[in-house]
Amino acid sequence: xxxxxxxxxxxxxxxxxxxxxxxxxxxxxxxxxxxxxxxxxxxxxxxxxxxxxxxxxxxxxxxxxxxxxxxxxxxxxxxxxxxxxxxxxxxxxxxxxxxxxxxxxxxxxxxxxxxxxxxxxxxxxxxxxxxxxxxxxxxxxxxxxxxxxxxxxxxxxxxxxxxxxxxxxxxxxxxxxxxxxxxxxxxxxxxxxxxxxxxxxxxxxxxxxxxxxxxxxxxxxxxxxxxxxxxxxxxxxxxxxxxxxxxxxxxxxxxxxxxxxxxxxxxxxxxxxxxxxxxxxxxxxxxxxxxxxxxxxxxxxxxxxxxxxxxxxxxxxxxxxxxxxxxx
Length: 328
Ligand SMILES: Cc1ncc(COP(=O)(O)O)c(C=O)c1O
Known about the structure:
Elements: H1 13-26, E1 31-36, E2 41-43, H2 56-59, E3 63-71, E4 74-76, H3 78-91, H4 100-114, E5 119-126, E6 143-149, H5 157-160, E7 163-167, H6 175-178, H7 186-197, E8 202-204, E9 219-223, E10 228-231, H8 241-249, H9 251-255, E11 261-264, H10 269-272, E12 277-282, E13 286-293, E14 296-297, H11 305-320, E15 325-327
Parallel strand pairs: 7-8, 7-13, 10-11
Antiparallel strand pairs: 1-2, 1-6, 3-4, 3-5, 4-15, 5-6, 9-10, 9-12, 12-13, 13-14
The structure holds pyridoxal-5'-phosphate.
Residues 67, 188, 214, 217-219, 238, 240-243, 282-283 line the site of pyridoxal-5'-phosphate.
């Protein structure tokens, strides 16, 4: 018989709550409100924003998520994000916690209760807790979580001076996983860490055919020498809601003489390196110019006019886009 004794404390529920509160005091976070189907409602104390350790999303990465923006008391393009969320759930064999309308109502309600006017709304679907098996527990009920937070913040110089990127040494995800917004972001995380370690701002995935893929949590697009706004096909990268919307808005730049056309196609790296402009696009970054890729300047190494114009089109749409705004 082992006589090993531990000096580790055995905690009561009150101790746990105190310790969670102390943790959040040491590590302040800008989380304004959290809905959890498991808790059965919304909490605003970050110490209570928790998920059970045996939730399949936590220990096996069997979960999906999406992020929409909150701008001036309005949620932007929630339906596009919900479409992608539901498609990701189906591909991941995840049961929805209710109807689309019910999920929508929970997202809008949590945002309204947070009291925030601007920020981000991230929501997750998990297959739920109940075992540590590889398959979801037989008794598992889907978990639905919504977090309202201050949003990711990027340096102002990314917009004024432009970003530097590198081709990542990490392989791009196989198409099924790249088009599914699952919580398995290991390649994306490693790519971003690698870029930071190399002293640049982000990385770019290249596919097996030598075509441009995407960045860590953003899409990549170009303006060719002859002025075409060109975006990689969405069959092997995430279908970015921001990119999709910008592809609809961009034709107005043709009439303004800023671009000559809009194209979604495979973009060989060699061709992409000769672009007039290169940019990152996404809900968090919006549109930011890339001025250097693998230590080589893009065109004259300065932010270009099309990136700027696309950012302005997007910002206007985020404030006034008819049929795309949920007023809180
Ligand atoms: C891998 C990846 N690509 C692209 C995007 C851009 O998508 P969106 O414009 O919907 O934010 C994201 C962000 O969600 C992402 O995580």
